[in-house]
Amino acid sequence: MLFMTGTLMGLTPIVAHLLGGQRNTAIRPAVHQALWVALLLGAVAAVLLWSAVMPIFILMKVPPEVAKESAAYLSAVAFGMPGIALFQALRAFSDGMNHTRPALWISLVGLTVNIPANYLLIYGGDGLVDLLGTWIPSTLQQLPALGAFGCGIATALSMWTMAIAMAWYTRRGRTYKSVAIWQHLTPPQWSGIRELVVVGVPIGVAILLR
């Protein structure tokens, strides 16, 4: 995730450079290439979380019960990785447009989703009864407690919430009207992807190794 975030941060200077040069029409295809890269990185991260976690835990001699719970959590988080990658790409775009506040507010939106979803999915109906009492509907009281797996589902939900909220804001916000990134989707182009990789990968590696 740190590598993804750093790599996609490479979009910020690209957008800022185009904006400063008043080349607004070139911003949309640059953002689209970042979105393609984000989807790819998110998918790769998800596959790694599904396939590589248990072998690593075995090599590290993690206790079986801890490994089982951790793997369950990460397998659920995997579904959110494409979402958080898309959010980071759109955040980098917004930052490059000199509009940094949306990322803060939308992160707080994700937090407001994550906290109650965590409680509900980790502790289930019994947790709700302990917190709110027996007056809650019987349907909610019967919700299963999913533990670490539920925590992962809540995290994935918050990731996708942030991605959808950021997409909505960049579509509706006045700051982005001159760019209109959600019109005429640009297909993958090697030149644009290469520019992002050249700028972003060193940032991603630096953040990963910090």
UniProtKB/TrEMBL annotation:
Keyword Cell wall biogenesis/degradation: no
One matching Pfam family: MatE
Alphabetized UniProt keyword annotations: Membrane, Transmembrane, Transmembrane helix, Transport
Regions crossing the membrane: 34-59, 71-90, 102-123, 143-169
Protein's name in the database: Uncharacterized protein
